[in-house]
Write a structure and sequence with these properties.
Blueprint (H helix, E strand, L loop, with lengths): L2 H23 L10 H21 L4 H4 L1 H12 L5 H16 L5 H14 L10 E4 L2 E4 L8 H7 L5 H11 L3
Antiparallel strand pairs: 1-2
């Protein structure tokens, strides 16, 4: 177990989530703009996670522990300024999942993020937007099977996820 790397990934995640909470609580997070503070943090984290992955590959559960592996996923999930890197990470994450060394829901979120960023419908219904004060999913490829796909990887329904997000951010 790489404890120093584990601590670093968890710290990066905590900073990300702390800043996000601060911006939401202050009303500074706008639907249609990338907050400069958030952008700067994501750029810094993106640079570091690229170095990590280049040197060791995907930070797997066996390498850094379950929580730090999830932290690595979150950092990549927020690397929205580098779609090519995110796509490359999908392959690494998928391989780790095949080896039972990462969680499949992480792949679902990252896959949907890369699809929606390209203007394509998502598969797992993990990406949401705000419309008239309501949390709604970005377009979904197949609404008839999405909840079953989500269930297979341990996620709740799209409707339940939307409600949870709505409540979490007090929207």
């Amino acid at each position: 177990m790489r404890l120093e790397l584990q601590a670093e990934l968890l710290k990066m995640q905590a900073e990300d989530q702390s800043l996000l909470k601060k911006l939401i609580d202050n009303g500074d997070l706008k639907e249609d703009e990338y907050h400069p503070e958030m952008k700067a943090l994501h750029e810094r984290n993106n640079s570091r996670i690229k170095d990590i992955i280049q040197n060791i590959g995907w930070p797997t559960i066996s390498l850094v522990g379950k929580d730090a592996s999830k932290a690595a996923w979150l950092i990549v999930q927020h690397a929205i300024l580098d779609e090519k890197f995110m796509a490359a990470c999908l392959e690494l994450l998928q391989e780790a999942i095949k080896n039972d060394d990462a969680e499949s829901w992480c792949f679902a979120y990252l896959k949907d993020r890369t699809l929606t960023m390209k203007g394509k419908p998502q598969i797992y219904g993990t990406q949401f937007d705000m419309k008239n004060g309501k949390v709604v999913p970005f377009p979904i490829e197949s609404t008839s099977v999405v909840d079953e796909l989500r269930k297979e990887i341990g996620l709740d329904t799209v409707a339940e996820a939307a409600q949870r997000i709505q409540e979490r951010y007090k929207l």
